[in-house]
């Protein structure tokens, strides 16, 4: 019977597990650091991060009327769809872009302060989760205005948010490692994010791609977005959507953990 890891690799795997566990348990640390990032970004601003909420509200209203007219959508249905789609997409796009800096941004801290490396990825995820919460205010106001109530779908959406965050952590870790080693990955990721925006149902509804459903089926972001947006809009998601989201989570973490075990010790030397 062959073992997946030899004795040395098992030691590295145990240390990687310990790093991830200690990082998750250090919620007060990465929580404080994430809040510090937000406060630093909007220092001396009257509205602070709510400027993002205001600009998002203007964007939703403008695009809602324009694309609602183009696609002949009822605004009462399309505006909540668009508000949730843009809020979740901005979170995903920020994780993809800022995940490249998970370790590069905190080079000095990594080299001089002993702490779990996973804290830095969690810090990136947390600060963008705060921004997602600010943008979610738009949907809440819109739901109250239109009389929308997801019912038990709210609990389902909360499970979707958990899946979204769990995936955001491995994305930030994996991209952080890759960009620490290969700096060219950062601009490539930026270009891919722009392309993904157009092929992901953020501003358009999936039913418009009736003859090209393969583009949606092969898009992992669709599943992570739909497990949050669908229940909040009162939709009953097919099991295939949840299965896709869970499969992405399992495959993503399997790949990330293998890479983390192999290269965790080298990250500080690559910075």
Write the layout of secondary structure elements.
Blueprint: H1 7-25, H2 27-41, H3 50-70, H4 75-99, H5 107-112, H6 118-146, H7 153-181, H8 185-199, H9 213-217, H10 220-232, H11 239-263, H12 267-270
Pfam families: ABC2_membrane
Membrane topology: Multi-pass membrane protein
Family: Belongs to the ABC-2 integral membrane protein family.
Describe it for me?
It is a multi-pass membrane protein. One of its GO terms (cellular component) is plasma membrane. Belongs to the ABC-2 integral membrane protein family. The chain has one domain (8-37, 47-270). The chain contains 12 helices and no strands. It has 271 residues and is an all-alpha fold.
Observed structural traits:
271 residues, mainly alpha, 12 helices, 76% helix, globular, disordered N terminus
Write a brief structural summary.
The protein is an all-alpha fold and 271 residues long.
Uncertain regions: pLDDT < 50 for 5+ in a row? 1-5
Structural class: mainly alpha
Number of helices: 12
The helical percent reads over 70%
Rough shape? Answer: globular
Count of distinct structural domains: 1
What value does the Rg take, in angstroms? 20 Å
- Listing every helix as H and every strand as E from the N terminus to the C terminus, the arrangement reads HHHHHHHHHHHH
Overall mean confidence score, pLDDT: 86
Largest sheet: none
How far from one another are the termini? 39 Å
Q: Tell me the number of strands.
A: 0
Strand content: under 5%
